[in-house]
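::Amino acid chain::
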Amino acid sequence: MNLQEYLQQESPARFPRVVLDSSEYVVGATYTIAGEKRKQVFINHASPLVAGIEYCLIGSRFYTTDRDGNPKSMSVFCIKSL
């Protein structure tokens, strides 16, 4: 499922896999912790459902973050594997 399909669902699917295109997210910062590369990312869309939410990108999966920016829970968003 892509971002547009996700946002236009009339009856939301439970934990779908939403693959984002590189133009649909913005990388705020990149850092490495214990050899693991993490990126602070935001989804580039005006929808109040996703706008302004900080995610942590680890590998190809997006994670919600706690108030300190640490990964908390896996989200439905991901990118194509590099």
